Amino acid sequence: MKPRVSLQDSALRNGNFSLRIVPVRGEDAGLYEAQVKHGTEVHSCLVELGVITVTLSPPSPVIESEMLSMSCNSSHRASLVETCWFHKEHLGPTSRTFCSLSGTLSILHPAMSDAGSWRCQLRYSDKEIISATFNLQILGFDGPSSPVVYAAAGSAAD
C-alpha cells in the first residue's frame, strides 16, 4: 500500500498509533489489526474499514445534455434496502431527493443546475445507514435564457 500509508512518528510517542491511508481505494476495505509492544505488555486493537465507492459514467466532468449515471456501492455485508441521492441538501419544496432499490441514479439530460454536491445514502437490512458525498462537475453554458443581452453604451457586457 506504499506510498499511500503513513504513521505519524510524533504521535506514536503520545500513544497514538493511527494508520493513515490516502487515498482510500475499494480494495482497502477489510479488517486491520494494530499491535503495540511496550516493555513486556502488548496492546492490540481491531478496526474494520468500510469503503463506499461513487462511480460516474461517463467519467467527470460531464457534458451538459449527455446522459449520465451515478452509482453508489459499499463494502458493507448486509442486504441493501434502499439508496437515496440528495442534491445540494435543499430543504422544502425545491428539495431534490431520489430513492430507489438499486444504487444507480440516471439523469437523461443533465443541466448546469445538476452540478454540485450529491450525497448517496445507503440503508441496509441490519439498520446500518452510511453515506458518501460526490461533487458533480458539468461542462456547459450557464448564461441567460435569452440569446439577446442589452448593455448601456460605455458599460461592460458579460
Describe, in plain words, how this protein is organized in 3D:
With 158 residues, the chain is mainly β. Helix content is 3%, strand content 47%. The protein has one helix at residues 9-12; strands at residues 5-7, 19-21, 30-38, 41-49, 52-57, 62-63, 68-74, 80-87, 97-100, 104-107, 116-124, 129-136, 138-139. Strand 11 (116-124) and strand 12 form a beta hairpin.
Give the strand order, joined by hyphens, for the main sheet. 9-8-11-12
Our count of helices gives 1
Class from secondary-structure proportions: mainly beta
Total count of domains = 2
Q: What are the low-pLDDT stretches, counting only 5+ consecutive residues below 50?
A: none
- The SSE order reads EHEEEEEEEEEEEE
Distance between the termini: 49 Å
CATH top level label of the largest domain? Mainly Beta
CATH architecture grouping of the largest domain: Sandwich
Number-wise, the strands total 13
Q: How large is the share of residues in beta strands?
A: over 45%
Helical content, roughly?
under 10%
Looking at the structure, the CATH topology of the largest domain is: Immunoglobulin-like
Major β-sheet annotation: 4 strands, antiparallel
* Mean pLDDT, all residues: 85
Q: What is the gyration radius calculated from CA atoms?
A: 23 Å
- Broad shape: elongated
CATH superfamily of the largest domain: Immunoglobulins
Provide a short characterization of the protein structure.
With 158 residues, this protein is mainly β. It has 1 helix and 13 strands, in the order βαββββββββββββ. It is elongated.
